[in-house]
Design goal:
The chain has two domains: about 5-160, MutM-like, N-terminal (N-terminal domain of MutM-like DNA repair proteins, Alpha-Beta Barrel); about 170-295, Helicase, Ruva Protein, domain 3 (Orthogonal Bundle), CATH 1.10.8. The chain is built from eight helices and twelve strands. The protein has helices at about 5-20, 50-60, 105-110, 150-160, 170-180, 185-190, 200-210, 225-245, and strands at about 25-30, 35, 45-50, 65-75, 75-85, 85-95, 100-105, 125-130, 135-140, 145-150, 285-290, 290-295. The strands form three sheets. It has a six-stranded mixed beta sheet with strand order 3-2-10-6-5-4, sandwiched between helices. The protein has a four-stranded antiparallel beta sheet with strand order 1-8-9-7. A hairpin with a 2-residue loop joins strand 11 and strand 12 (about 290-295). It is globular and about 60 Å long. The model is unreliable at about 40-50 (pLDDT under 50). It binds a DNA duplex (14 and 14 nucleotides) through loops.
Length: about 300
Amino acid sequence: MPELPEVQTIVDGLNQQVAGATVVGVSCDWKKMISVETENVSPNGAITLRSEKTWKKFESMVVGKKIKNVERKGKFIVFNLSENVHINAHLIVHLRMTGHFLIITPEKRKDTKNAIHEKVNQYIHFQMELSDGRIIALSDLRKFAKIAIAKKSDIDRIIIVGQDPLNKEFTLEKFRKIFKDKRGNVKQILMDQSLIAGIGNIYSSEILWEAKISPLAKIENLDDKEMKSIFNAMKKVLKLAIKMRGSSESDYRDVDGNEGGYQKIHKVYKREGKECFRKDGGIIKRIKIGQRSTFYCCKCQI
DNA sequence: TGCAGTGTTGCTTC
DNA sequence: CGAAGCAACACTGC
């Protein structure tokens, strides 16, 4: 569920609150989510940590390090860890479906009643304790989230993502170029992380409504004008969603445990059977594209 | 009550 | 080889 706007909101929160902090301990009760990336492994790179020995390796690469800063790459969150001044390890996290980070202060730890979203505590499967007593916790109901520790030389092998939609250098011209030789329906192509990174099921529907393009339209049939409206809609929708601190359909929370606000202004997502906000007499339809629910207005999206 | 459906990704199958 | 299906997991709602 966390797509670009949600991940960006989390990364901004982490940067504001924990950049510069030192990790003094890590714990995990679901070690399947952890991997250690080393230069010696091939071809997928990951060693799954099942033994205590490999967990110790992970621990040794994180504990005692300073969180220099936190970055977003597509839907990935990267904690840049440093010893002295040089960044020497990257903690890479993908939240998948239901993962989210929470920063738990010592006060909140004591105050169990008011602490966090009450149902969240039991889903915390990974924690990093900071020297000031705060905890960075990863809550994940479905346990799909992935955490990897990697050296700089391994990072590009793990994070393979395309253009960032909100990068100022990502122009309309580059956008057109990426799709020039691509085939297939536009919705699935917008969600292809190796082309453009960060758009998922919710925002692809929202962007295509904004652009007045059917999710079933074939990318190879779209003209320049239509490609331009998708490009503009993409930037507009994602920027506004970040401003609203993301969409909370179910589990998503920001690092302080608060819901986002964008779900309140979804134009099509989960609005099946309702009137189109364009007041064009259209009713929002729900279809399946590649096993995923897709929402669109049958009147204005052609 | 039980089973289909739920944001994502990646591996397997055809 | 590319597209489609399904598994990973736990909960909700019909």
